[in-house]
Design a protein that fits this description.
Radius of gyration: 25 Å
Strand content: 15-25%
Strand order of the largest sheet: 4-3-2-1-5
Distance between the termini: 79 Å
Number of strands: 5
Helix content: 25-40%
Order of helices and strands: HEEEEEH
Largest sheet: 5 strands, antiparallel
Number of helices: 2
CATH class of the domain at 33-84: Mainly Beta
CATH topology of the domain at 33-84: SH3 type barrels
Amino acid sequence: MTILLFVMLGLFVFMMFRRNKKTQQQQAAMQSKFAPGVDIMTSFGLFGRIVSIDEAENKVVIELSPGIEATVHRQAVTKVVEATPEEAPVVPDDASSLTWTGTELPRTAETPDETIARLNKEDKKDN
C-alpha cells in the first residue's frame, strides 16, 4: 500500500514537471516569432501589430490602430495572430459610405440605390 502511494506521488510530480516544461517550450516558440510587423493578441484581448521590442526592459510597443500605440509587458502578448485571406476584413474603396447604426457594423458597402431598395423592402415587410 505504501509503495503504491509513493508511485502515485512520483507519477503526479513527473506529470507536473512535464506540463511545465511543455508550456515553457510553447511560450519560447511563440516569443521567437516576435518581430516588428507581426499581428498579435494580448492577454487582455487587444489586437495589434508589433512596432518595436525592448529586450532589456521586456517591453513591446504595439500599434492598435493607425497612429495609436501602446506599450505592454512582453509576457502580456499571448498569441501571434495569423490571418488567413478568408478572415481578413474587406474594406471598400469608399469607406465614407459606411455608417454605424449603433447595433451592428455593416459587412459590405452599399451604393445609395441599394440602400434605398433595401429600406423599401424592410418597410413593406413591416406593413
